[in-house]
Design a protein that fits this description.
This protein is mainly alpha-helical. The protein is built from seven helices and no strands.
Length: about 180
């Protein structure tokens, strides 16, 4: 585990929390940019693994991911710092919006501004999926599985939970088979 100063970790996750719009999937490219590209605290593979685990448990994906990544980077104190830092900007903005716009949610200007954010969020998600897919889906089988799962999810043929369970089970099976092959 690299030695990371907690104040740097806190500020990185605070910046992530302040620049993330659109929920958990939209946060992925921002997490990857800060933690993999800019800081080199995690690899792309570690980021995807932590992100998959963060989606597999109840709660806010961005906070779940921050806690897992913070723990991976700097232990328990890193998990606490990352979780608080990534949630703090959203908490403060929502508190401010609730106080200022309490009676204004139906305002056409506010509704139009919020609707304008949607295409940008979709673009962020697609860009992150393509960038991470190129790095992670190395074999034709993994690529075919990724495309197949994406197609089924887009067609709404099956919920996300079976995919998560099947992916975890498949990973455990591959690990067990590799371990069995390595034993004398």
């Amino acid at each position: 585990m690299p030695t990371v100063r907690l104040h740097l970790l806190f500020w990185s996750f605070l910046r992530i929390g302040a620049s993330t719009f659109g929920g958990g999937m939209a946060a992925l490219p921002i997490f990857e940019d800060e933690l993999v590209q800019r800081r080199s605290w995690l690899t792309s593979e570690e980021t995807v693994e932590a992100y998959a685990l963060a989606q597999s448990v109840p709660g806010v994906i961005a906070i779940n991911f921050a806690v897992l990544a913070g723990f991976r980077i700097a232990g328990t104190r890193g998990a606490v710092a990352a979780g608080i830092a990534v949630a703090l900007p959203s908490f403060l903005v929502i508190l401010l919006l609730a106080a200022v716009l309490f009676d204004q949610w139906q305002n056409r200007w506010i509704a139009a501004a919020l609707n304008g954010l949607r295409p940008a969020v979709i673009a962020l998600i697609v860009a992150a999926a393509l960038r991470l897919g190129r790095r992670i889906l190395h074999s034709p089988l993994l690529l075919a599985l990724g495309v197949g799962v994406a197609a089924l999810m887009l067609c709404r043929q099956i919920s996300l939970i079976p995919f998560i369970l099947a992916g975890a089970g498949g990973g455990l099976l591959v690990y067990a088979l590799r371990q069995r092959g390595n034993t004398p």
